[in-house]
Amino acid sequence: MLKLTVKEGSILRERIDAILIGIHEDAIEKSPLAAEVNRLLGGAIDKVISRKGFTGKVEQIEVLETRENIPAGYFILCGLGKADKAGLEQIRQAMGRAVLRARDMGLKRVGVTTTAFINKTENIAVEDAGRAMAEGANLALYRFSKYKVKENSNSKNIDEIRFIEEERKSAAAVKIGVEKGRIIADSVNFARDLINHPANDMTPTILAETAKKMAGANRIKCTVLSRPQIEKLGMGAYLGVAQGSAEPLRFIILEYNGGKKGEKPVVIVGKAITFDSGGISLKPAEGMGKMKYDMSGGAATIGVLRAASMLRLPLNIVGLLPATENMPSGTAIRPGDVLRSMSGRTIEIISTDAEGRLALSDALFYATRYKPRWIIDIATLTGACAVALGNHAIGMLGNDKELKDRITAAGDKVWERVWEMPLWDDYAEQIKSPVADIKNSGGREGGVITAAIFLSKFVEDYPWVHLDIASTEWNDKDKAYMPAGPTAIGTRLILQLLMDAC
Ligand code: BES
Ligand code: MN
Ligand code: ZN
User: Fold this and answer.
1) Per-residue pLDDT for 409 more than 70?
2) What is the pLDDT of residues 182-229, one digit of tens each?
3) N or C: which end of the chain has fewer CB within 10 A?
């Protein structure tokens, strides 16, 4: 287990394997630590600059040996980019790259100090810097090796990242930030674990049990509904999705009451399709295995509740996960079928592969029971999201300007950025049905939007935002602090929104 510790002292006197130093592009002389290291090593940084072209660009990283001038063995220099553009994201990325290099080198204990990562002109508070550094490191070092039983190729591990601060006051602030960052990143990694599990080991039943266990350890109330109760509630749309699967469905309710009694809760609804084959409207075989990640919205929701409780946020927060598989079988729903949702609305099935909105519609309607302050749903909802936005933006649609603005601001802070798309009535035409109240697919054009319009029918007049994470949930290539695989995107975004709402 990775330990993150904070102490007061002088980093150059610390007994550690390496010191990580963030360097702003073309501004090495402005970093007091870099300048001192340069002097200690007889101009070694100057040499790296002139010989290797290291200038502090965002992706650059260089290792210097300390040659026994100080107890630490190495300096790892990592670029922060141009000082006037540097912010928390550059800090997270530089930390991520630096700790990965340290791990590759087989190092165990590394030291950092926030002053080497903050550009003084940027006005970044030390607490925020500490949080960003802890997040960057903890997110970057994530690995999922549960199923590598015999050939565990990479067993190198960093044991400790030690924050060493010159001043007592900043050590205290950094300690708070590091603790927040640790909790948040651990919760993202918790969600990543849920997503990484293959569908045979992350069935709705197992997901519910895992949520229950997490809740029990964190003062969260967890209620799991199964078929008889879900039938009684009349969740015909959600039941329709589940009816082709041999795995029983589970409606997972998480309630964290950190706010005042009676205070309106924020309800988060997470899509939790543990495997999406498409059903009778079967998906193509290629890449279908990835559809184990169709429960990512649900995983992010669990991650948010976990962190919110550990951070003791003074809010009431509810998480709702309509968990089920979407499978083809003799009992599965067919295109052309009509389902009756809990809201009373009837839905004509055009494609059984548009299952997410079916499960979500009943969960969203259930959410209105809480008379919520906000409803936020998060879902790997449409392939169209990748066509519209590529892999860098979360699709955002909603009915409340204030909530959308808050989410946009939170996304910019944690670099889980959203981009708004229109929820105009004009698009509703596409999901009008000749036989039922509404149909579950509006065709290819504007797929993100018609899906969101469908959802909007079930939230009554409550302030609501839908986040489509279909194109941002999976990383094909390693990034600075996002190893290839599930990103659990949305976890940090929603947490930031909640933290800013306190
Ligand atoms: N889970 C998928 C969306 C998806 C596709 C997520 C690719 C990530 C990558 C969703 O259930 C789905 O199949 N949506 C259909 C909707 C269509 C039938 C209206 C889609 O996008 O093709
Ligand atoms: Mn689908
Ligand atoms: Zn799906």
Assistant:
1) yes
2) 999 999 999 999 999 999 999 999 999 999 999 999 999 999 999 999
3) N
CA of 283 to the centre of ligand 1 (A): 9
pLDDT in tens, 230-272: 999 999 999 999 999 999 999 999 999 999 999 999 999 999 9
* Tokens, residue 191: 């969600």
- Ligand 1 contact via 257 beta carbon (within 6 Å): no
Q: What span, in angstroms and rounded, lies between the C-alpha atoms of 17 and 134?
A: 18
Residues carrying an active site annotation: 283, 357
Cα 236 to ligand 1 centroid, rounded to whole Å: 20
Atom of ligand 1 lying closest to residue 356 CA: 11
Judge contact between 40 and 61, C-beta under 8 A: no
Instruction: Mark 205-229 as b/e (b = at least 16 C-beta within 10 Å).
Output: bbbbebbbebbeebebebebbeeee
How is residue 101 annotated by DSSP? Answer: H
pLDDT of 152: 66
**pLDDT tens, 134-149?**
999 999 999 999 998 8
Q: What average pLDDT does range 482-500 have in this prediction?
A: 98
- DSSP label of 5: E
- Ligand 1, atom 13, residue with closest C-alpha: 353
Question: What distance in angstroms lies between residue 275's CA and the mean position of ligand 1's atoms?
Answer: 12
User: From the CB of 280, is ligand 1 less than 6 Å away?
Assistant: no
Q: Is 325 in the pocket of ligand 1 (CB under 6 A)?
A: no
CB 486 within 8 A of CB 193: no
| 333, 278 contact by CB (below 8 A) | no
Instruction: Kindly report the protein residue whose alpha carbon is nearest to atom 18 of ligand 1.
Output: 354
- Coil, helix or strand for 110? strand
Residue with structure tokens 């990835």? Answer: 290
The sheet that has 338-340: what strands, in order across it?
Answer: 338-340, 346-348, 438-439
pTM tops 0.90: yes
Q: How many percent of the chain have pLDDT more than 70?
A: 98
Q: Is the CB of 96 under 6 A from ligand 1?
A: no
Task: Note the pLDDT of residue 129.
Answer: 96
Q: Enter the tokens of residue 47.
A: 């040499």
Indicate whether residue 25 lines ligand 1 (CB < 6 A): no
Whether 354 lines ligand 1, by a CB cut-off of 6 Å, is yes
Closest residue by Cα to residue 80 from 122, 121, 119, 132: 119
- Tens of pLDDT along 321-330? 999 999 999 9
Instruction: Look up residue 305 and give its two tokens.
Output: 């509740």
| Among protein residues, the one whose CA lies closest to atom 5 of ligand 1 | 383
Nearest CA owner, ligand 1 atom 7: 383
Span from the CA of 273 to the centroid of ligand 3 (angstroms) = 6
